[in-house]
Amino acid sequence: MAKLLMGLGTLQLHGLQTTLYRWLQANSMMNRDISPPLQAYCNCTLGTNFEPERVRSLRDALATEFVDVFQEEGLVARADAPFCVKTQQQDGYTTLLLPLESKLLQSVRKRLREYLSREWGFRVHDGDHPASITLVHNIPATADEQIMELCAMLVWPDFVTFTSAAIYTGGKQYKRFGQIPFKTQ
Length: 185
Description:
Elements: E1 2-10, H1 11-26, H2 55-65, H3 67-72, E2 75-77, E3 86-90, E4 93-97, E5 100-102, H4 103-120, E6 123-126, E7 132-137, H5 144-153, E8 155-156, E9 160-168, E10 174-176, E11 183-184
Parallel strand pairs: 8-11
Antiparallel strand pairs: 1-7, 1-9, 2-5, 3-4, 6-7, 9-10
């Protein structure tokens, strides 16, 4: 069974990432200066080169320094994760993840699921990553152009950024379409 993954983000999260980066750099939380990522995924990856021994103090600081900012921006803890800073260890690097999402994005995902179920007959559920819309469907290899047409014809609110789309074949092989033209309201 194949999956179509659609990477969504909001301009809210772009701004939040920039604010957090400036604070982290000002407090010397990074080993070296790293530019913010361009894609605003809801995990809000803050970088991949943090000092592991400072992660605990960073968690505490974020919880106190930014809790008001999160609330003011309409950002909420992800449904599948508590509000915390998570770390991932890979290749000797520490990656910081904030499990946040936008209330606006929650509404967009709900509307998209309803549309795809009603008009296209897709069985839809949220992916492992909350910024991804996973469309569970038996997608034949010859359907690439149809998938492109589907993505291009959807109308998105203007606050949504569309990062990428990919077909996941189940063998951990992704066919990425990259930046797909999309319409906004």
